[in-house]
Structure formats: C-alpha cells, structure tokens
Specification:
Layout (H helix, E strand, L loop, with lengths): L2 H27 L3 H8 L2 E3 L4 E6 L2 E6 L5 E3 L9 H13 L9 E2 L11 H7 L1 H8 L3 H10 L3 E3 L4 E8 L2 E8 L8 E7 L8 H4 L2 H10 L7
Helix pairs in contact: 1-3, 2-3, 5-8
C-alpha cells in the first residue's frame, strides 16, 4: 500500500466512524430516557438532559439529545470516537434482559464466527503478548480498572465495562510442551446489550488500556 492509498483508507475509516456515530446519536435521541435507564441500568439527569454512564472505573456524561460524551475524570479531556460509539450503542441497544449467569465465547455471539480471525488478533493475541507471563501484573491492573477475581483458568478476572456487560478474561499457564493460553467469555445475555461487532472491539480496548500501564522496556 502506498502513502496515498493509506491516506484514503484513513479518510474512509474516519468517514465511516462519523456516519456510525451520527446514526447512534439519532437513535438515542429517539428513545424515551426512562426506557434507556430501565434497560441499561444508568441514571438520568433531567436538568442536564444527560445520562451518567459508568465505564470500568470511570464515569461519563452522555447527553440524550446531542449524543455528546463528557468525561468526569480530571485526567481525561476528550473521549475517542470509538468509545463514544460504544457508549451510545450500549444505551441504544440495551433491552433490560437479566444476566443469565452462563458464559459463552465470542463465536457463540450472533454472527461471531465471521469475525473470529480479526477478533483473535485484537484480543487473545494481545492478552497473551502482554500478560501470558505476567499473571500478577494482569490481576493488579484489572483490579485497578474495577475488575474482580473469578474462578476460571489459572487466573481470571471479571471486568465490567458497562453496568450489564460483564466480561471474563482467563489465562492458563504454559509448560514445557504448551505455551500459555487465554480465553474471553461473555454472559449469554450479551447480544441484548451490544452488537457483535462491538464485542470484537471492546475487550481489546480494555487489554490495551491495561498494557499501557506496563513499564516500558529500557
């Protein structure tokens, strides 16, 4: 790919993200805030016309009519567009289905088998690259983002990016014959809260956020 083709690709991706964001904004503004709150487990500030949305260990204001997303943490000044889209998609797609307490893999999500290869590259491979040999660091960083220990694999953590979207990250130690391995699991109610393509992105964003806290090689 030459530089010109790369520039075109970046412009196309930015255009597609903007179109996706604009649609999500329209979709949210068309739903009664009471329905959004009941289905997603968030609260609504009538005076400010915004939702208070928890994401990991932070909170954001998401404005009902405009779709604007504002971080409440002093350490953040802006919110990347892919996170804005995820926030809006959660509020729009949540239908209030109770958590089922049954874990499924990504390919068990609707159409998940189509995205398996890119999903592995975005999630499982980075998880193993950064934490396959650093279980203690994985637990420490997951806890710092609001995760909690779980009993699956040699070490596992449940992350809660959104109020009704728990995600299990599990790691197994390697031995002389086998390298470390990993899996990511979703509650069986997951399709009731986000489209499958969002689940191809969301777990990787959490992994990269943890990896960014690792010491850089000297």
């Amino acid at each position: 790919m030459n530089q010109k083709d790369g520039t075109k690709g970046e412009k196309r991706e930015k255009y597609n993200l903007n179109v996706t964001l604009e649609k999500a904004v329209r979709d949210l503004s068309a739903i009664d805030p009471r329905t959004v709150c009941m289905n997603s487990g968030v609260t609504y500030n009538r005076e400010k016309d915004c939702y208070l949305l928890p994401y990991l260990n932070r909170k954001y204001e998401v404005y009902h009519s405009t779709g604007e997303v504002k971080p409440l943490s002093a350490s953040e000044s802006t919110v990347p567009i892919h996170l804005q889209i995820l926030f809006l998609h959660y509020l729009v797609n949540a239908d209030g289905t109770p958590l089922k307490g049954e874990w499924i893999t990504f390919k068990e999500l609707p159409g998940g088998h189509i995205y398996v290869d890119p999903y592995q590259k975005r999630t499982i491979k980075p998880l193993l690259k950064y934490f396959g040999h650093q279980f203690d660091k994985f637990q420490e960083l997951a806890l710092s983002l609001g995760g909690r220990p779980y009993s699956h694999g040699d070490v596992s953590m449940v992350m809660q990016p959104f109020p009704r979207v728990p995600i299990v990250y599990a790691l197994w130690k390697g031995d002389e014959e086998l390298p470390p391995s990993a899996t990511i699991l979703y509650d069986a109610s997951a399709p009731s809260y986000l489209p499958t393509e969002d689940y191809a992105l969301l777990p990787g964003l959490i992994i990269w956020e943890m990896a960014a806290q690792l010491p850089r090689p000297s």
